[in-house]
Amino acid sequence: MSVVLNRLGEIRPSLTGDKTQLLRSSVSGKSEIKAAKKEKIEVTKTDIASGFLIAGSFYALSCLFGNYILPDIGGVIIHPYAYLIAFLTLANVFKLIPRRFCEGTKILSKFITDSMGPMCFAGIGIAITDFGEFMAAITLQNLFVTFMIILGIAIGAAVLGWVVGFYPVDSAIIVGLCCANRGGSADVVLLGATDRMELMPYAQVLSRLGGAVVLALSSAVFAAMF
What we know:
Radius of gyration: 19 Å
Order of helices and strands: HHHHEEHHHHHHH
Low-confidence stretches: none
Helix content: over 70%
Shape: globular
Largest sheet: 2 strands, antiparallel
Strand content: under 5%
């Protein structure tokens, strides 16, 4: 499905961007994009190290809240990833983190994703996969249901993405398919096949956010039913 969407973007360039951004230039403004590209910050090793320290601090704070301070709200268990996303979102909205540290973190993330990601995620994916159960699950009925679910997710993400100002092809891939795969290892395969590795941070946030939402809703439903 991702390869088909990528091919669709190549045939109809108006449906996709430059494979590094989700927001349409007609919405954000081409002048703003050009201005942002001109504002290059020369990142130093100190900035990269500071970004790594900040990321680790936010993760530690999220684990502290998720496991000890406020593990649940009204009986609904809040996963540390949900806290992590909430804290990072607030920090970004209120611009609490200097931009040079953000750029340093981006470089570190790109290095890990490009250099170590495929190797680590492939190894993890192979290690946690029960190939016996996987082969047993491959039936015509399961394949049809899976295909229809993925098709619905892709179309829904493309339409809603267009409404809020995203490129439909990129929205279908990042917002739709990355939320319907197996997580980090599948994100690498999917984005690598569509030449959109620059969008990995979005895919990771969406995977974690989707998982956190599912965990929160599941906790609420099971708490109410059982």
